[in-house]
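Sequence design from tokenized structure. All designs in this work follow the same two-part layout: the structure record, then the generated sequence. An example of the structure record is given first.
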């Protein structure tokens, strides 16, 4: 059903790999996805990917500031040994899990993001790839017109990069991460799911009254979960038209609690329905219009 749509969607869907080394020396990475919106290099993704990128950057800045403070104390010839020890103790140590180095790989070497925008409460991220060559992407997405037959019951497909692990290493000589052999290209993985319902997000003030955010804040829910590695990727129909950007997965208890096979008497399994949630096209288009970002809208 989605074979032709997948051939379309894969052309504007890219991977992002966030690599990180901790103060303790452990290297790891997280994988997500993004959708290239237009020939200027604007993308949409999940806001939590941009938030993670920003958090790592802030932690690295604080780590470098800490290193500079320690170096200044050790280099200060006016301090005796006792005073140096006192000041070094006062400076303390960074947590071993604190980010010491990081990088973001946006599908191509040398490409970074700028003008990062996070649409609060709905997990929509908008950013711009730089540098960007329009010839890299020959097809750009059409977003579903939310005013025309945008109702539950439609079969949709999610696309991203789950079930793939990359453990980078830090090359001190060149000051950058290296990805292991075989890490690239990252394989795409689609999963289908019916559009089940729309989830409204209501933002309240301290008194509990609704706040006008200026944008409709909605998610589309699907009957299958969004998989880790698909965050920020497209949710599209059989024509390849993007209906949503994958955000998260909700876990709904279904009320069935059978006994655990081989478990102790009284032990029960708690069963859940895992429903994917993606940013609704009305929210996506509202945000793109608000920030003046060129995009295409479907005719249906």
């Amino acid at each position: 059903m989605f074979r032709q749509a997948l051939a379309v969607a894969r052309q504007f869907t890219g991977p992002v790999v966030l690599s990180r080394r901790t103060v303790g020396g452990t290297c790891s990475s997280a994988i997500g996805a993004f959708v290239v919106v237009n020939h200027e290099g604007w993308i949409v993704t999940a806001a939590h990917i941009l938030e993670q990128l920003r958090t790592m950057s802030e932690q690295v800045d604080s780590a470098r500031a800490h290193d500079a403070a320690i170096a200044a104390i050790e280099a200060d010839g006016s301090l005796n040994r006792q005073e140096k020890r006192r000041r070094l103790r006062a400076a303390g140590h960074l947590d071993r899990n604190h980010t010491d180095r990081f990088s973001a790989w946006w599908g191509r070497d040398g490409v970074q993001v700028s003008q990062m925008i996070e649409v609060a409460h709905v997990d929509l991220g908008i950013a711009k790839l730089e540098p960007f060559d329009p010839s890299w992407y020959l097809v750009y997405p059409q977003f579903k017109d939310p005013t025309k037959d945008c109702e539950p019951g439609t079969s949709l497909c999610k696309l991203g990069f789950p079930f793939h692990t990359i453990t980078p290493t830090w090359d001190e000589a060149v000051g950058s991460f290296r990805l292991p052999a075989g890490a690239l290209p990252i394989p795409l993985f689609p999963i289908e799911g019916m559009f089940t319902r729309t989830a409204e997000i209501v933002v309240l003030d301290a008194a509990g009254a609704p706040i006008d955010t200026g944008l409709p804040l909605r998610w589309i829910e699907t009957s299958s979960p969004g998989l880790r590695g698909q965050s920020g990727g497209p949710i599209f129909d059989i024509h390849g038209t993007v209906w949503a950007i994958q955000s998260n997965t909700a876990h709904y208890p279904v009320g069935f609690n059978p006994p655990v096979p081989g478990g102790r008497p009284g032990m029960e399994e708690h069963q859940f329905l895992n429903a994917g949630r993606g940013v609704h096209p009305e929210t996506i288009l509202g945000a793109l219009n608000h920030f003046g970002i060129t995009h295409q809208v479907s005719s249906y």
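Residues 162 and 228 are 5 Å apart (CA to CA). We note this feature because it recurs in several other targets discussed in the main text.
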